[in-house]
Amino acid sequence: xxxxPGSSTSSDTCVLAEDGxxxxxxxxxxxxxxxxxxxCIDNLSGIxxxxxxxxxxxxALDPRDVRxxxxxxxxxxxxxxxxxxxxxxxxxxxxxxxLVHPAVRSRMAALARYLRSERVDVVHCxxxxxxxxxxxxxxxxxxxxxxxxxxWWKSPLRHEILNGFAFRRSDRxxxxxxxxxxxxxxxxxxxxxxxxVVPNFVDDDAFAPHSPEERRALLSQIGVPExxxxxxxxxxxxxxxxAATVISAFARVADAHPAWHLxxxxxxxxRESLVALASQLGIGHRVHFPGSxxxxxxxxxLFEFSVLSSGxxxxxxxxxxxxxxxxxxxxxSVGGIPE
Length: 339
What we know:
By secondary structure, the chain is of the alpha/beta class. Helices cover 29% and strands 18% of the residues. The model is unreliable at 6-12 (pLDDT under 50).
């Protein structure tokens, strides 16, 4: 962000904090206060890659140089405690409904007043709704820098139009793969010189092996005994993820590999139809749906290999988590997956 608050010609550095954790520290400058960055997200659910990468980034920033405030469009969620544990205040501002509702402008103005009062230097929006609501509020507040983000492959046309409007009024657009850069056309068009690629990443804990107790607990949650060879997929049960293809593929090889079981970790609108499909194919007793398992539990470590059959992707966190667990991956060659 050349010329922005706290800018310098020095390169960024990594330092060790007193607790031994590695922090990202910006260039040393003569500024009198830390850069104040407002991270803006749609929700605090913590189940998606966007929310996880936002909190991981916030935790890694050195508070002596960067002061982070989290602005959430929803008031609460599981991820709130993680921000607060890192000493990051969580503030709720919401458009209150549709982004095109007449009342949104007054709510946007209220957020702009808050950004001015808090002397926010950088408004960093992480997802589809925050790009529009908080990004445009940042411009109303005349924040020195506004960053918007795109981490998804497709969205409804109305969202593409609104996000394109926000993209063109921001200083930078952050994407998580070069493939996403290529989608910034049509309503979302933005100059390539203003697009920055920052791939998704995982916590250091993602590389840690399971303790015997952790492994037994996860296998018990799944419902399989120790020693069962497992194929696994960790993804939402939604049409773009196409978990039905994983089940159909497993059915084709199940007879040749009678000991193997398939584990589909996640929740979503397609769950009932996926359970029914496994039953129809005669493999219901070998396909397991344990629900959501947090990334911190490292479910990929249970699998012999991990699978993802998405029809389109930006840059799926689940594959980075699988690689961190040392597992080979079988995946569709779409979007940012080849990267």
